[in-house]
Specification:
Length: 304
């Protein structure tokens, strides 16, 4: 919200592109084409910035990229714009000249840099979102002095389809949106949830939800939708049967807030006991082996 550069969906511009990979896949399976650009001049060394952003975004999105590794369409391509024309883009070189001209007219391109991305919508938007944040970091020198911007993210789906089964998008105790309650038992994938995230300057600093307070709804979600064994949650379901008022919660990430307020390069800079890349706590010296006396004190037996 601190800058106006928006991710532009430009799928229609690639119709009949003459690039077979795009012509065969765009528009199907929720595949889209999108682009993010920022103005830049030669003094900002745009080529170096685009390489840095490309490297940092791939590192940050390693798990995300891995998840979509089997996707038929998954392309990230740097964009350089000079004199209002897109130059040196690997994807557009394989497309007809008309595609490039249409994009330049549609977006009214100004000199600068950015990225093109192709693939499933849920792949493309997080990628360009991360690249958008990094481009702003390197190209907007007054970014940290701009007014802080905070907003709520709402209307998350209640369930997601993962590897052939339905899973809770947030957690299995999240209440369905009252406007979509009728979909819970008929079409749960279309049901929104009362899950919310709080975002400051593009970074999530908190999240929570309104909980299910009806025993029959909670049992239905666990047993019928998620196929979970509810035997270990009988105490919860019985408590809900006794009468429970609507209730909600939120957890704030204090370390994330402090990292933003102090302009820290990494959240690790403000965590009291940060872990190393191999999971060790160097401040406390953990994990570490314990003595036989300590095992005896805590009634721990060493397995053979």
């Amino acid at each position: 919200l601190r800058y106006d550069n928006e991710i532009q969906i430009i799928t229609d511009s690639f119709q009949q592109s003459n690039f077979s990979v795009l012509d065969e896949n765009l528009g199907g399976n929720e595949n889209i084409a999108a682009m993010i650009t920022f103005e830049a001049d030669g003094s900002q060394n745009p080529n170096k910035i685009i390489k840095t952003v490309d490297k940092e975004s791939k590192k940050s999105l390693k798990d995300h990229l891995s998840f979509y590794s089997s996707s038929t369409l998954k392309i990230m391509s740097p964009v350089v714009i000079q004199n209002g024309q897109i130059v040196n883009n690997g994807v557009l070189k394989k497309c007809s000249e008309e595609v490039r001209i249409n994009i330049e007219k549609e977006l009214r391109c100004k000199d600068g840099i950015g990225f093109l991305a192709f693939g499933p919508k849920d792949f493309v938007l997080p990628v360009l979102g991360k690249q958008r944040t990094l481009l702003a970091k390197y190209l907007l020198p007054d970014l940290n002095s701009r007014e802080q911007k905070m907003f709520w993210v709402i209307d998350f789906p209640l369930f997601l389809y993962e590897e052939g089964v339905l899973e809770s998008a947030h957690h299995p105790f999240t209440s369905p949106h009252p406007e979509d309650y009728h979909l819970l038992r008929t079409d749960p994938l279309k049901c929104r949830s009362l899950h919310y995230d709080l975002v400051l300057n593009g970074q999530e600093i908190g999240g929570g939800s309104v909980r299910i307070h009806n025993s029959s709804d909670q049992r239905y979600v666990l047993q019928d939708i998620l196929k979970e064994d509810t035997s270990e949650l009988d105490h919860l379901l019985k408590a809900l049967d006794c009468g429970c008022p609507p209730h909600a919660g939120i957890a704030l990430g204090l370390d994330r807030v402090i990292a933003i307020l102090t302009d820290a390069d990494s959240i690790r800079d403000v965590i009291a006991f940060p872990k190393s890349s191999d999971g060790k706590d160097l401040m406390a010296g953990a994990p570490a082996t314990i003595t036989d006396e300590q095992r005896e004190m805590y009634f721990i037996k060493k397995s053979k």
